[in-house]
Amino acid sequence: MHATLLGVLGLALLGALHAQDGIPVQSDFQQDKLTGRWYTIGLASNSNWFKDKKHLMKMCTTVISTTADGNLEVTSTYPKGDQCEKRNSLYIKTEQPGRFSYTSPRWGSKHSIHVVETNYEEYALVATQISKSTGSSTMVLLYSRTKELSPERLERFTQFSREQGLTDEEIVILPWTGESCWWECL
What we know:
By secondary structure, the protein is of the alpha+beta class. Helices cover 25% and strands 40% of the residues. It contains 5 helices and 9 strands. Residues 35-177 form the Lipocalin/cytosolic fatty-acid binding domain.
C-alpha cells in the first residue's frame, strides 16, 4: 500500500511539473517532424499590440529548422503594406520536449512556447505565455502545411484559445493575401 501511494504521488508530481503553467505539450514530441514550411492560419492573443493590429494581419509563412545545438530557428515572412518582412527567432529547447523559451531582443519579453498538439503533416497548435515588465499575455498560433484547414481543425484552435481565457474578439483566422505576394515574400 505504501509503495502504491508513493507511485501515485510520483505520478501526480510528474503531472504537476508538466503542467506547471497550465499549457499542455504534445506527447511523444518529435522535433525533427516539426521542421519545414508552415502557413500561419490562425492567431489569438490578449496582448494590446494584437488588439491594435489584428485588422491588418494576413496569413504568413513560417519556416522552422533545427540548429546544430538542437534549438529551433523560426523565420516568419509576412506581408506588410506592399512589402514583405522577415522576423527571425531562436527558440531555445527546454528539458521538456515540445517546450521552448525565447527572449525578444527588441522588447525584452520572455516567451514560454508550447507545441500543444500536432500531427506534423497537417497542422500544429502552438501556445505561448509572454511576460514583460508591463504584464503578461497569451498567444495561440495555428499552423498548417497548406493554406486551408478543415473546419474541425479551425474549431479546435478556437476551442483551445477559449480554454486559455481568450475571447472570440481575440481570435482571428487570418486571410490569405493571394499568390502574387507569396511569390515575392518567399
